[in-house]
User: Which sequence fits this backbone?
């Protein structure tokens, strides 16, 4: 096992979907399952065909289970699309792709939630059934829904992200429900671990993936009371985002598309900020900055970045 | 076209699922699409995984569309089961089989209903998309839910029928919501057709498939005011039911498993009652009884029975 000989403490990672899940997988190959907790954005969640769809949670679970579609990063490997084809024949909505087996995850979750189970419990059971060892926790059991404020009006996140392919210019973001959402006992327990060694902000979209988590008041308080370094990995590399609408969004909000903007956005939350080697010249001598290869193409890249992040948390170099 | 030369009036058929759908198909091959209305039981409908499942409506639509699974009579031809397999892997409920493409019907319906569409409208759109020409109408847009009262307590219909495989002894039946359910404008319009020529009670289960329709107060009134003969086809042939729990149910209710029991159950509603040739000796000289082959194995059987039923309605012989 890769984790053999691990002598560190417990690790918490906060992430969104595809990009963040890559580092989560790297961490899962370095940190023993019982010492790793991945807290996942729920702001992208929505109901589709009446089913509870949790894109980021499922991407993280599938990725950690080794079941993610390697081509897309989302959805399941070996997926089939009979359902979507049949929906199309009936004139139903086909803008959001739900594969036949991905749909099963949503259906099982929907049924469990309708029976009164918490999203945390359902997620744990699904993750376990697919063979995931570490804890995957929704940021909250209470609904948090990202709303994208655009020139075309307010759009539910998936309408903006998938339906409109991020085309409308963003004027602002809000997270409906976040102000009253509660931290779950499981999330609180993770932060209370006596051997907590690092809190990792994965290179997910700070505004769309990490902010909906941080917007939960109790969660910010837990981080504020932390007893372990918080290490954030820049999602901006070489002046752009590797994936998704981050660079476009930052530009539309009038922000410079640089790691420094992201660091400023996170502010005092961050103890260590990891830049990609491509941006090493931006590191200067700022005490919080570190440099490591952060473009994760292979599994080895994911593991290497995970090792770097943990080394930085321990005050060392990778 | 088989319907070429049709000189008759409009026809209404009331039916449940598989057995009734066979005669509905026969009628659809004899009666032009614009002159046939099939009114379908909704008492079996339920929510599963949060999706609106309408087993009888879908069986009728698939059958009329030539898309039904010929082996089972329910579900779609060429179905795949990736969804169900994945649900099983996740420990979800697999007692009710929903194929990947069948699921699409449920999902599209669920989404449309959530948007405020009536079940009648949604059903018409789905039927049209699959190429069904005649009108397929839910008995009501209001929820009617068959509850099976058993020694093990009250069971939702699908729990009894599929989940328990009809094993619990039936003590009674009730149709929750029926008393306040309203007849839709489309159902009322079908009965108001000036050239209405026949009302057909298909050989569906009288207690489980036809009664939930008849339990809608307005519908009984429409039939009572009918200007066309009502022809019922006995679902009991040779002392038993060809399909489903009818014979067992009748025995459990202390009823003789005979066509006479069914006719007595329908009572004055029926003008003509069709016995299978196997039961010709039971016809006696009762003025309402007619005899015709009613075991529908082939498409030709379905068409022949449809022709017989229409001939009886016209006061003749097939």
Assistant:
């Amino acid at each position: 096992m890769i984790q053999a000989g691990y002598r560190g403490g417990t690790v918490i990672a906060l992430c969104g979907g595809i990009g963040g899940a890559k580092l989560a997988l790297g961490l899962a190959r370095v940190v023993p399952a019982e010492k790793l907790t991945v807290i996942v954005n729920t702001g992208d969640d929505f109901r589709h065909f009446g089913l509870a769809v949790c894109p980021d949670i499922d991407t993280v679970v599938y990725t950690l289970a080794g079941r993610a579609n390697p081509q897309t990063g989302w959805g399941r490997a070996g997926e089939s699309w009979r359902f979507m084809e049949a929906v199309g024949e009936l004139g139903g909505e086909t803008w959001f792709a739900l594969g036949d087996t991905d749909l099963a995850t949503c259906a099982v979750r929907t049924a469990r939630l309708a029976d009164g189970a918490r999203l945390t419990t359902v997620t744990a059971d699904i993750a376990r059934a697919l063979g995931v060892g570490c804890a995957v926790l929704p940021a909250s059991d209470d609904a948090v829904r990202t709303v994208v404020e655009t020139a075309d009006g307010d759009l539910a996140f998936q309408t903006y992200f998938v339906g409109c392919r991020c085309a409308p210019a963003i004027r602002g973001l809000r997270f409906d429900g976040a102000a009253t959402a509660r931290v779950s006992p499981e999330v609180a327990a993770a932060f209370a671990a006596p051997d907590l060694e690092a809190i990792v902000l994965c290179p997910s979209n700070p505004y769309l993936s990490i902010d909906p988590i941080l917007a939960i008041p109790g969660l910010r308080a837990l981080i504020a009371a932390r007893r372990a370094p918080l290490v954030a990995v820049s999602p901006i590399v070489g002046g752009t985002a590797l994936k998704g609408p981050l660079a476009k969004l930052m530009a539309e909000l009038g922000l410079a598309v640089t790691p420094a903007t992201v660091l400023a956005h996170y502010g005092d939350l961050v103890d260590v900020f990891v830049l990609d080697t491509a941006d090493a010249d931006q590191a200067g001598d700022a005490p919080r900055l570190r440099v490591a290869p952060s473009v994760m193409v292979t599994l080895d890249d994911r593991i290497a970045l995970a090792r770097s992040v943990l080394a930085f948390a321990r005050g060392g170099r990778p």
